[in-house]
Amino acid sequence: MRAPSGEAAAVVKSAGVRKKEEEEDFTEQAKERLNEREETNKDNFGSTECSTVTMDLKFNNSRKYISITVPSKTQTMSPHIKSIDDIVVLGINLSKFNKLTQFFICVAGVFIFYLIYGYLQELIFSMEGFKSYGWYLTLMQFAFYSIFGLIELQLIQDKRRRIPGKTYMIIAFLTVGTMGLSNTSLGYLNYPTQVIFKCCKLIPVMLGGVFIQGKRYNIVDVSAAVCMSLGLIWFTLADSTIAPNFNLTGVMLISLALCADAVIGNVQEKAMKLHNASNSEMVLYSYSIGFVYILLGLTCTSGLGPAVTFCSKNPIRTYGYAFLFSLTGYFGISFVLALIKIFGALLAVTVTTGRKAMTIVLSFIFFAKPFTFQYVWSGLLVVLGIFLNVYSKNMDKIRLPSLYDLISKSVEARKSRTLAQTV
Prior knowledge:
Layout: H1 2-45, E1 54-60, E2 63-69, H2 73-76, H3 79-82, E3 88-89, E4 92-93, H4 99-125, H5 134-154, H6 165-185, H7 191-198, H8 202-211, H9 219-242, H10 248-275, H11 279-300, H12 304-313, H13 315-343, H14 345-366, H15 374-393, H16 403-422
Antiparallel strand pairs: 1-2, 3-4
Helix pairs in contact: 4-13, 4-14, 5-6, 5-11, 5-13, 6-10, 6-11, 7-14, 9-15, 13-14, 14-15
């Protein structure tokens, strides 16, 4: 009886050895296949960072378990999306600096480039005979912006167009309306009046929200709109009283530009978030399509020939200024976007509002025009409306003291004064 049992034990032992050898062979084959896949991925993509899959084979009680480790989110991102963490403006990587340095760099960029932008814009329209060629200036601006966007797009690794062409056609049409009507309005308005109107984008946004979407706004938003409206009316009345070249056509043009500007912001934001597009892509396609729109419009209205003839007589003051005007505007918006991304819209609105106020002051200093203190009071009303609008959107972050707190603090201050006098 012992011999057969010994033979059975030997058979079981040999079967276990064979099974172990088969498992080792299977493991080695799996590892060889993984190595071949990794080498293939290296040949196709140059790196295994985005395609590496780690497989651990375990054998417990003759059952095979395969665990797959999925790459991290940053590994699977495209080069463009991965570079979003680094905020680069004009070749300067702001991520390497601390917050205070980033703030001063962004503020300096916004003020420097946009002050030059505003000065050049008014300088161009102060040229005798140029006021009727606002659309041609917009055509040149769109051409330069398209070139700048193309150059910037070549510097990033992901050059694919993400937003559909139909969406770009809508955005381009709104951009043409915003910038074309705004530039053309300078032929009828003073530059400070145009800047004041451009500060009041909240009014058409609220009107559209009420009549189109049926929205309801709180008392702070309504107060902001009332302050802006009163400031605009007061500023326009002052301008019509003392400005010799005041024309209601300019008011209509800048008002239509505001309406288009109020719509384009929502469309651009929705498209960029939905399709994860870059700023350079948005600039390139929207402005290049807009360039075609304006070119067709000027050709059909016979406005292209006279504009080209006029600008060719003095190319430095027309094409040269238009190039610098477009370049500073392009650089300025880059710093504004960086400011919004790092510090949020609240601080960005504060900085841009200060920049617009400085632009108006410099306009009165460098360009001779009539002045009245009604400009000051109406401008302060508009600024108050802007900050009320910002406060309504950030009420959780900004806590203003209540009337009860102010009264209690004043009572405590009086008590402390009385006590100090008694002592």
